[in-house]
């Protein structure tokens, strides 16, 4: 019962009133459904696998090339209110000049963030790269979440693309149908108007 409804809806019945354009529309819709069902899962799996592997590699790279070190504050962590900050709450951390030791006892300096009120000489944790230069904390990527988002994006983009293709085919066929109806109406109108 439901198969007949779907076939009727898609235009796959042997209705004598169906035109060639109706058959073309029905078969193009069927072809797009087959393409979506055959290519869609592969594209989604490829996107998920690629996103998952990329996140795993980036997490491993950042763990191997970024390190936490204890840095010593070279100045007090203070925050001064000026005219542009009026009415705003004090930030939890502020930038301050810090120094840290790296390989072979080399002392490096840079900017770190410390809680407001922390005194010069106290320590804060900062992240550095392979060369001891100041870096940012490694991002905590979730490979599963990113793979799921990649799948959702591929499904949405593919569906929108195929729906757009179907709409263009339908629009072209509708233009053809309208031209055909206009030609038929010109013939019929002469007969009616002569009465």
Description of the structure:
With 195 residues, the chain is of the alpha+beta class. It folds into two domains: 21-61 and 142-193; 67-135, no CATH class. It has three helices and five strands. The protein has helices at residues 2-10, 20-65, 143-193; strands at 67-73, 93-101, 107-115, 123-128, 134-135. The protein has a five-stranded antiparallel β-sheet with strand order 3-2-1-4-5. Strand 4 and strand 5 (134-135) form a beta hairpin. The longest helix is centred in the last third of the chain and has 51 residues, at 143-193. It is elongated and about 105 Å long. The two termini are 47 Å apart.
Shape: elongated
Low-confidence stretches: none
Distance between the termini: 47 Å
- Find the structural class using helix and strand composition: alpha+beta
Number of H/I helices:
3
Largest sheet: 5 strands, antiparallel
Number of domains: 2
Report the C-alpha radius of gyration, rounded.
34 Å
Overall average residue pLDDT: 84
SSE ordering: HHEEEEEH
The fraction of residues assigned to DSSP E strands is: 15-25%
Strand order of the largest sheet: 3-2-1-4-5
* Helix coverage percent: 40-55%
Counting DSSP E segments of at least 2 residues, the number of strands comes to 5
């Amino acid at each position: 019962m439901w198969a007949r409804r779907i076939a009727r809806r898609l235009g796959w019945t042997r209705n004598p009133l169906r035109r060639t354009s109706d058959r073309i529309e029905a078969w193009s819709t069927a072809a797009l459904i087959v393409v979506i069902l055959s290519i869609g899962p592969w594209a989604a799996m490829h996107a998920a696998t690629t996103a998952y592997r990329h996140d795993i590699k980036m997490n491993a790279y950042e763990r191997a090339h970024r390190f936490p070190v204890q840095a010593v504050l070279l100045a007090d962590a203070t925050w001064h209110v000026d005219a542009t900050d009026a009415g705003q709450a004090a930030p939890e951390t502020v930038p301050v000049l810090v120094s840290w030791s790296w390989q072979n006892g080399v002392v490096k300096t840079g900017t770190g963030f410390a809680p407001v009120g922390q005194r010069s000489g106290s320590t804060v944790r900062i992240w550095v790269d392979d060369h001891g230069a100041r870096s940012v904390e490694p991002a905590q990527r979730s490979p599963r979440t990113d793979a799921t988002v990649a799948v959702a994006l591929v499904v949405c983009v593919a569906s929108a693309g195929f729906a757009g293709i179907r709409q263009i085919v339908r629009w072209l066929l509708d233009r053809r149908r309208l031209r055909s109806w206009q030609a038929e109406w010109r013939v019929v109108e002469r007969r009616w108007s002569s009465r």
